[in-house]
Amino acid sequence: MALPQTFITVTRRPPDVEDYIDMMRRYRSWIIGPMFAGLVISTVIAFLWKDTFLSRATMRITPQQVSEKLVPAEFSTQMTQRLNAMEQEILSRTMLEGLITSPALNLYQRERNDRPMEDIVQDMRNHDIVIQPIQMAQSAGGGAADGRMVSTAFSITFTYPDRYKAQAVVTALVTKFTEQNVQVQRDQAHTTTQFLDDELRAKKDALDKIDDQITKFKIENQGKLPEEFNSNSAMLSNSQLSLSSLGSELQREMDLKSTYETNLQSAISQLTYYQDNADDFVAGNNGQMSVQNQQLVSVSNQLMSAEQTLAGMQKHLGAKNYQVVSLQSEIDVLRERKAQLEKEQAQKDANVQQPDAPKKVPNKSAQNAILNTKAQIEAYKTQIAEANDNIKRVQGLQDNTKKNIALYEQRIQAGPLNERQWTVLQREHGLAQDAYDTTMKRVQSAETSANLEEHKAGENLEVLDPASDPQQPIYPHRAEWAAIGTGLGLLLGVVLAGGKEMKNTSLKNLKDVRAYTNLPVLSSIPLLENALLVRRKRRLFWLAWTSAFIFGTMAVLASMYYYYFGQK
């Protein structure tokens, strides 16, 4: 029965430079082999990988040729925004599929046999076509006064194994951008103008509707508008003054009528008196005739007429009126004259003898007085009729004036009631008018901007650099690939050598013996091997390395031959 073994774990001693050199010498095949394999594999892959060419074109955004102070741009979208929309349109599936299947290009022939068109279009959009802005510093007079970087240009690149097709695709994309920009500008100008025309028509209809409402309100409330308050107040004051004046005029006309009526009654009384004394009685005395004093009769008639006129004037004008006082003075004179004539007539009558027999004879003075009195009566009647007409006229004017006063008072009272509705209509009209004027200015500005676009004087796209003809592929970089493959192989070899060293726990030199046994070493005996076996191992080693080198070299040469002579 074997005794159980006891294992002791010993920590490895830290290696030095000689140890690392020994490791590299022991495991040189593990290091050089992967490194050579990485070189061969990376070189073969690099030469078998198809060249990819990149064609580039540059387009820039040219600013508006006419100053915006003179002709402001009406279109709200800027060129950068339009570029985003155009890019989405140009890179759409329909556009790209048309480019791929066009007879002049016929792109991705091999891929189209193995993959669906959607995947090819997606790869073309995401990987092969690149559209990116170019940051350019603006001058002090440009768009960025602070000298910051702004994008005024953009590049269009396309990568493809065929450099001529790459250039053709970029040229086609540049053409599509130019055409699309012209179409977008035309459509935008047309759409903007059409939209603003519709807006202007709608604003005009709204303004006409408000105007109709205002006209209808003015017709229904004619004279009652708040803005007519001052004129209504003035007309009311004028009407009240006119009514007062008409009242005074009516009173004057009524006074004149009363005076004319009094004079008419006085004339009628005189006419009766004259008619009663139309004949005189003459008495004979020794053949002598005595005639009644006609002067006394005339004065009596004048006095009677004046007293009647005075009574009427005192009634209407008052006792202190200057006309009443003047007439009173005339009556006093007539009375004195009549008293004097009566006294003279009494003296004559005392000296005249009694007549034998009175004789009736016509009184010519009385006859004339009768005719004059009748003429006065007709004149008074005419004056009374005229006074009546004037009174009716003034009364009619008073009625009309009162109606006007009532109308103006009604308008003034109705003014505050209509003020709110009138204010609302005026405010709506002002807003509608402002909206119409603003839209009209926009329409005019849009027409000017459309004309500017037609003359190519607005913001536009310009080809700065046409599509380039690539002479050298952008990848693969074969020297870099070979270096990277060699480096990765070397790294792999070092890792494998390190792994082998970690697994090998044997004592490799005298340092290991001293470190792990703690015994003095008196001498060392070299490893004794069979010479035949040693030679055999060496021949196998060199055969393996020679075969690997030849095979790797042939693979590299074959890939290079395929690259230079085998591709169509």
Would you write up a description of this structure?
The radius of gyration is 70 Å and the shape is rod-shaped. The protein has helices at residues 17-26, 28-48, 79-90, 93-101, 109-114, 117-128, 163-220, 229-276, 294-317, 322-351, 364-454, 478-503, 510-517, 531-566, and strands spanning 53-62, 129-137, 149-160, 279-285, 288-290, 358-362, 460-465. The protein is 69% helix and 9% strand. A four-stranded antiparallel sheet has the order 2-3-1-7. Strands 5-4-6 form a three-stranded antiparallel sheet. Among the domains are: 1-49 and 476-522, no CATH class; 279-362, no CATH class. Helix 2 (28-48) packs parallel to helix 14, helix 4 packs across helix 6 and helix 9 (294-317) packs antiparallel against helix 10. With 568 residues, the protein is of the alpha+beta class.
Q: Helical segment tally?
A: 14
Total number of beta strands: 7
Radius of gyration: 70 Å
SS-derived structural category: alpha+beta
Helicity, in percent?
55-70%
Largest sheet: 4 strands, antiparallel
| Strand order, sheet with most strands | 2-3-1-7
Mean pLDDT, as a whole number?
76
This entry's quaternary arrangement is: single chain
* SSE series: HHEHHHHEEHHEEHHEHEHHH
Shape, please? rod-shaped
